[in-house]
Amino acid sequence: MILKLLFWIFFFILIYAYIGYPAILFVITRLKKLFNSKKTHTISDYEPDVCLFVTAYNEKDFIRQKVENSFQLDYPKKKVQYVWVTDGSDDGTPDILREFENLEVYHQPERRGKMHAMNRGMQFVKAPIVIFSDTNTRLNPKAIREIIACFSDPNTGCVAGEKRIVEKEADVAAAAGEGLYWKFESWVKRMDSELNSAVGAVGELFAIRRELFEEVETDTILDDFIISLRIAQKGYKIAYSPNAYAEETASLNVKEELKRKIRIAAGGIQTLFRLNTLLNPFRFGVLSWQYFSHKVLRWSLAPISLFLLFFINAAILAETGFGRISDFYSIFFYFQLLCYLLAFVGWYLENKKLRFKFLFIPYYFVSVNYAAIRGMYRYFRGKQSASWEKSKRAI
Question: Per-residue pLDDT for 392 more than 70?
Answer without folding.
Answer: no
